[in-house]
Amino acid sequence: MNRKETDLNRVIASQDNMLQRVLGEGISLQIKCAPQPAVVAVDDAMMGQILVSLAENARRAMPGGGVFTLQTELWEVDDFYAQTQPNAQPGHYVRLSVSDNGCGIAADKLPALFQPPATGAARNGAGLGLSIIAGIVQRQHGWIETLSEVGQGTTFKIFLPQFHLAIA
């Protein structure tokens, strides 16, 4: 991976047309970026592939159409919160929330969601599977939280360490 200082808002904006093509006409794309730069150290191309793969998964979850939302926020994780999430560490993060209002995921399926082969995307050539996405995020010292309810949709909250510029 070619990790470099990257504004995640810019990556999302650069993927806008591609994501809309992946989602198709029946799914509305909503982008809600933080007003300030959401700077992380990532590989732009890999982040783009993650977004496209999550859009492909959302498209399959919304065969009748729906809404796919990407949102960035700057997020501070304190000690208490870090203790509630595996792999979480206190610090400053960019939280990328990726949501759909599709079919959702049953609660009993959530614990194994990021274990291969939890999704068919990688097996059928449609994109990265969730286990691969989780591995990429973990290598960036981040983690993913998943919220889902059958019939209501799914939200993946991807936490990536915020990149801080050294001030000379």
How is the topology of this model organized?
Elements: E1 4-7, H1 8-23, E2 27-32, E3 39-42, H2 44-61, E4 66-77, H3 79-83, E5 91-100, H4 130-139, E6 143-149, E7 153-161
Fold and architecture overview:
By secondary structure, this protein is an alpha+beta fold. Helices cover 29% and strands 31% of the residues. It is built from 4 helices and 7 strands; from the N terminus they run E-H-E-E-H-E-H-E-H-E-E. It has helices spanning 8-23, 44-61, 79-83, 130-139, and strands at residues 4-7, 27-32, 39-42, 66-77, 91-100, 143-149, 153-161. Strands 2-4-5-7-6 form a 5-stranded mixed β-sheet. Strands 1-3 form a two-stranded antiparallel sheet. Strand 6 (143-149) and strand 7 (153-161) form a beta hairpin. Helix 1 runs parallel beside helix 2 (44-61). Residues 118-126 have low confidence and may be disordered.
